[in-house]
Design a protein that fits this description.
With about 625 residues, the chain is an alpha+beta fold. It has helices at about 5-10, 20-75, 80-90, 155-175, 215-230, 270-285, 315-355, 370-415, 425-455, 465-475, 500-515, 565-570, 575-585, and strands spanning about 95-100, 105-110, 120-125, 180, 190, 245, 255-260, 295-300, 460-465, 485-490, 495, 520-530, 530-540, 585-590, 600-605. Strands 9, 10, 11, 12, 13, 14 and 15 form a 7-stranded mixed β-sheet that branches. Helix 9 (about 425-455) packs across helix 13 (about 575-585). The longest helix is centred in the first third of the chain and has 56 residues, at about 20-75.
Length: about 625
């Protein structure tokens, strides 16, 4: 039977769970939602704008009509209206045209020859208008600004102003707030809570309600115009004045309506209606010479008017086409991005599924997140390869280190058992030395294993660097021909385990003495550096080659490639130094030049001597 390969056992990813499909689905969903949201927002906004524009257009049309009606009410003709028409057109963005009822052009904001709209928007007639909505508009549709002969001259206006101010001060003395307003004819009128109620006769002045000479003449003229109509209506008006005074509070074009005397012998309601119709007809005839003739108002779309939004079939087709194009571009871009993302992921997957002994690496083709991931994967592969090689080397080194002393012990025991040699003290000392070598190797391996597992126990206490150096120096002064010098101030104290620190320095000093020739020097120095204590072990030996410096703290590494325990040690001393320093929260580093010796620098947390104040640095 054909064996199953790793490629054959690889689990197939369902289509719906593939990253490419998910990215495409998300891109399409986002595109659809974006297009839908944009279309909804556009339609909603456009509808709101259209409604707002319609309201603005209606308000603008009313303001145009009110402005032109005011012009007609205060001018006898349209000769100067062209300037007002252009100003209104520039302000509102509308095309404004005025014509006579027979379509003779009076004024136009558009260039000459521009055709008129098919229908007029309104008729501008100050004597017959129903579009003026401000307070003061009289019954019958006469614009309140059409005052004609009722406009007061400056002298009469000044006299009434004095009377109005006097009455206002009188009301103020009684705590009443009165306002003086002016009606279109120029007459001042008191407004407030009391003048309409006649509660303070002392402050009332009948002259404010009496007709001035100008108004009297206008009222007499109005009497002559209204009398024939009143008589024809069967009203007994006699030959006296028809209008006794003006009423400033009535709704009239000059702020005061003419007061008819009581008509005896007539039905009150019928007489009032007939009299009102006759007065309105007479008023129009009286004001006609003072106002502009009626004109038709045409309104259109000007150059500055915004274009209307028309959702026609053609526009709908354009919207659908644009939305489809956006959707297609989004899906295409999403597919391109997804393929670009999936390709390196597939390469990573294939490399990860490859047999471990192959140490497959993936090419780094991008500098984005996937490229960073590929670099991390390659670094992990390289680290795994180095660890595998180191593991094999460690196994080989351990076997080599244990085999040599065991072989010696076994050989001597066998020859003693066979009676070839007698067990004398020298032979027993040699076997004991080999057993001690084995014990040191096993102890070193146990220390490294405990440090790697984080179970190495430390018994920290304040430790004097000078005392520590003295103990280490006393244990190694047997070295012949090599001077061992210690330099440590009394202020340098460590927070460390004394036994482990003697082990650390012992390993470094032993290593230095082993590589320092006769006549050389090994120096131990301690100093304080802020919150740290710095210990150095320097020798004047052969030094370490630059290419060997990165490996000095690796396990079972020795500069002597012959791997002799007699000259190079077991290769575990410096790794133990690094692990014990790390357990103390410190660091170890080495600098060296071939032929100039080596310097090992240890940095550990410092502490104060028992019973002393905290150290504040050098003065």
């Amino acid at each position: 039977m054909r064996p199953r390969t790793r490629q054959g056992t690889r689990r197939r990813i369902p289509l719906r769970k593939r990253l490419l499909v998910r990215l495409l689905s998300v891109s399409a969903l986002i595109a659809v939602c974006s297009v839908a949201a944009t279309a909804w927002l556009a339609v909603t906004t456009t509808t709101s704008v259209l409604k707002e524009e319609q309201g603005q257009d209606l308000a603008a049309d009313n303001s145009i009509l009110a402005r032109l009606s005011g012009y007609a009410a205060t001018h006898p003709d349209w000769s100067g209206v062209q300037r007002s028409v252009r100003e209104l057109a520039a302000r509102t963005g509308r095309r404004i045209a005025l014509t006579t009822p027979d379509r003779t052009l009076v004024a136009d904001s558009a260039p000459r020859g521009t055709p008129l709209p098919p229908r007029p928007a309104a008729s501008v007639d100050p004597l017959r208008t129903d579009t003026y909505s401000e307070s003061g508009a009289q019954l019958g549709g006469i614009d309140p600004r059409a005052v004609g002969p009722y406009r007061l001259p400056a002298k009469e206006r000044a006299g009434l102003e004095v009377l109005a101010a006097r009455s206002k001060r009188c009301y103020a003395r009684y705590g009443l707030q009165i306002t003086v307003r002016h009606i279109p004819g120029g007459r001042p009128v008191l407004t407030g809570s009391d003048p309409s109620g006649y509660g303070l006769p002392a402050c009332e002045d009948a002259r404010l309600r009496a007709a001035t000479p100008t108004e009297t003449r206008a009222l007499d003229t109005l009497s002559g115009l209204a009398r024939p109509c009143l008589r024809q209506a069967g009203l007994d008006v006699g030959d006296g004045p028809l209008f006794l005074a003006v009423d400033p509070g009535s709704k009239d074009h000059f702020g005061g309506g003419p007061l008819l005397p009581k008509l005896a012998g007539q039905d009150k309601d019928a007489s009032a209606r007939s009299a009102q119709n006759c007065v309105l007809s007479a008023r129009r005839a009286q004001l006609e010479p003072y106002v502009a003739p009626a004109a038709d108002l045409f309104l259109g779309i000007g150059d500055q008017s915004p274009a209307r939004f028309d959702i026609s079939p053609a526009n709908k087709s354009e919207v659908v086409s644009a939305a489809g194009l956006v959707l297609a571009v989004t899906v295409a871009a999403g597919a391109a991005v997804a393929i670009r993302l999936v390709r390196p992921l597939r390469a990573l997957t294939e490399a990860a599924q490859a047999p471990p002994e192959q140490h497959v690496r993936v090419p780094v083709t991008t500098r984005d997140e996937t490229g960073i991931l590929a670099e991390a994967f390659n670094e992990l592969t390289e680290r795994r390869e180095r660890l595998e090689a180191q593991r094999k080397a460690v196994v080989s080194d351990i076997a080599h280190e244990l085999r040599s002393p065991l072989t010696n012990i076994r050989g001597w025991l066998e020859v003693m058992r066979d009676g070839v040699v007698e067990p004398d003290p020298g032979l027993l000392d040699s076997l004991h030395e080999e057993a001690l070598v084995l014990q040191r190797i096993i102890d070193d391996l146990q220390d490294l294993a405990a440090a790697d597992a984080g179970t190495l126990r430390l018994h920290r206490e304040p430790l004097s660097a000078a005392e520590l150096f003295g103990q280490v120096a006393a244990a190694h002064r047997v070295a012949a021909g090599v001077a061992l010098v210690t330099e440590a101030g009394p202020a340098v104290w460590l927070d460390a385990d004394p036994v482990r620190m003697r082990q650390v320095l012992g390993n470094l000093v032993s290593n230095a003495l082993r590589h320092t020739p006769a006549g050389g020097t090994v120096t131990l120095e301690a100093r304080r550096d802020d919150a740290d204590a710095v210990l150095t072990v320097a020798d004047t030996g052969s030094g370490i080659a630059a290419e060997d410096l990165p490996h000095v703290f690796e396990r079972f590494w020795r500069a002597e490639k012959s791997r002799s325990r007699r000259t190079g040690g077991s290769g575990l001393g410096l790794p133990i130094v690094r692990q014990l320093l790390a357990a103390h929260g410190g660091t170890a580093r080495v600098t060296s030049e071939p032929g100039a010796g080596a310097v090992f620098t240890l940095r550990l947390p410092a502490t104060e001597a028992p019973g002393e104040e905290p150290w504040a640095g050098e003065p």
